[in-house]
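Researcher: We plan to redesign the surface later, but first we want a full-length starting point. Tokens attached.
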């Protein structure tokens, strides 16, 4: 009987942990390690509402198996002033043209965090 490849499992765990750490650091700052994009519905909010919404994204910690099945902390759903919003982190190559070859490596990855109204999805 073959033994499980513990090195592979450890590598996957380390990769996921690193992606999660990079995502959390970027999301909490909204500027370091990536680019933040607001959809037209979010951009149309007044400054006070936008600031409150951005703060909710930065402090989001309600990760679960339902909204974070891969453990990367790359998606969240929040509510502000009775409106549902989503935020999502995607991983692009440095030129922002294709998917990143390795989301765990910040040298080859640009994170793009998009914040949108749920009805814009």
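Model: Full-length starting sequence:
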């Amino acid at each position: 009987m073959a033994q499980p490849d513990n090195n592979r499992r450890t590598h996957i765990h380390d990769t996921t942990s690193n992606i999660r750490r990079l995502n959390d650091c970027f999301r909490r700052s909204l500027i370091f390690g990536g680019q933040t994009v607001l959809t037209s519905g979010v951009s149309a909010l007044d400054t006070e509402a936008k600031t409150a919404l951005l703060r909710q994204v930065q402090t989001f910690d309600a990760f679960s198996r339902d909204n974070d099945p891969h453990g990367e902390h790359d998606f969240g759903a929040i509510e502000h002033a009775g409106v549902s919003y989503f935020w999502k982190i995607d991983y692009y190559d440095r030129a922002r043209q294709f998917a990143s070859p390795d989301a765990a490596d910040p040298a080859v990855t640009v994170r793009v965090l998009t914040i949108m109204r749920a009805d814009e999805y």
